[in-house]
Amino acid sequence: MLVYEFKLKGKEAQFSLIDEAIRTCQFIRNKALRYWLDNKESKPNETDLCALVSEKGASMIQESLA
User: Fold this and answer.
1) What's the CA gap between 55 and 38, in Å, rounded?
2) 46-64 tens-digit pLDDT
3) What is the Cα–Cα distance from 3 to 11, expressed in whole angstroms?
4) What is the residue-wise DSSP string for 18-61?
5) CA distance 65 to 60
6) pTM for the whole structure
7) In angstroms, what CA-CA distances link 10 with 2, 3, 7, 15, 38?
8) C-beta separation of 56 from 32 below 8 A
């Protein structure tokens, strides 16, 4: 695995947006992995995965706004 490390100079708002983007990517990765593990016997269906991520993502966003 190739890893790049560097220091950033930015504002707090920019750092919070970067953190949110990282959390979103990790959420989607984890949902995709869980879907794959639960449905190994069947053929992968990207439509079902997208529906699952959008449903869970919408509820996650609503919880964070509350």
Assistant:
1) 18
2) 777 777 777 766 666 556 5
3) 24
4) HHHHHHHHHHHHHHHHHHHHHTSSSPP-HHHHHHHHHHHHHHHH
5) 9
6) 0.58
7) 24, 21, 10, 7, 41
8) no
